[in-house]
Amino acid sequence: MSKRGGRGAIQVAVVATSAVRRAGLESLIRSRPEFQLAGSFGAVASLRSYAPRSDLDVVVIDSDSIQDLSLDPTSQSAIVLLTEVTDARSISRLLRSGVRAILSKESDPDDVFSAIYAVYDGLVLLSAPIAESVASVYRDQSPESESELSEEITPRETDVLRMLADGLVNKEIAARLGISEHTVKFHISSILDKLGASTRTEAVTLGIRRGLIPI
């Protein structure tokens, strides 16, 4: 569920052992008026001791050390990790420890921004190579199970699909659901993938055929 509540700028802290990369992340956060740089740290341990960390919305961490990423589970901050770690076991461990977005260290600024928006709105975001690594673990499952899982539309995606059927654009859908336009785009992309549609119109048509959209 989105944490948006008219509180203002998204409170973001950055963590990186490299002073150069930390300065780059600071500059990135400051470049967007909807973000507020709430803290900058050279180590995850320093973040743990940061008293008002419960006020942080998102923490962007630049690290390849899995051991350093076991954050306090009571923290309410969503974590975006920039890393070169790609093996499925480590990724699974990171996701269990509270990381909600995992990207390459060489990700474009727009990808980092999208990740911040996504985790702030309660989503999980993985870069393509990392998603491929995780998906490889499940390739041995039966085709029937894979098909069944790929076609499952969540309640929120159903809401978005019905709004598409009503002719609403992304901005209007975002306003009605209280989420960002970036999150709406993620939902629409997931809907198209699950329905096997190439356009919004085709998705709506398939949604009607499958009884997802009342007529």
Commentary on this structure:
It is a single chain. This protein has 215 residues and is an alpha/beta fold. It folds into two domains: 10-136, Response regulator (Rossmann fold, 3-Layer(aba) Sandwich), CATH 3.40.50; 143-208, Orthogonal Bundle (Arc Repressor Mutant, subunit A). Helix content is 46%, strand content 14%. It has helices at residues 19-30, 44-48, 88-96, 109-120, 128-136, 143-150, 155-165, 170-177, 181-195, 200-209; strands spanning 10-16, 35-41, 58-62, 78-82, 99-103, 125-126. Helix 7 packs across helix 10 (200-209) and helix 9 (181-195) crosses helix 10. The two termini are 28 Å apart. The relative contact order is 0.11.
Order of H and E elements? EHEHEEHEHEHHHHHH
- Tally the helices: what do you get? 10
Which structural class should the secondary elements be placed in? Answer: alpha/beta
Q: Total strand count, please?
A: 6
> Can you tell me the residue ranges where pLDDT is under 50 for at least 5 consecutive residues?
1-6, 142-150
Approximately how much helix is present in the residues?
Answer: 40-55%
Determine the CATH superfamily of the largest domain. Response regulator
- Report mean pLDDT, rounded to a whole number: 81
Question: What is the approximate shape?
Answer: globular
Strand content: 5-15%
- At CATH level 2, the architecture of the largest domain is 3-Layer(aba) Sandwich
* CA gyration radius, whole angstroms: 19 Å
- Could you give the order of strands across the largest sheet? 2-1-3-4-5-6
Cα separation of the termini: 28 Å
Q: Main β-sheet, in a few words? A: 6 strands, parallel
How many structurally independent domains? 2
Tell me the name of the CATH class of the largest domain: Alpha Beta
**CATH fold name of the largest domain:** Rossmann fold
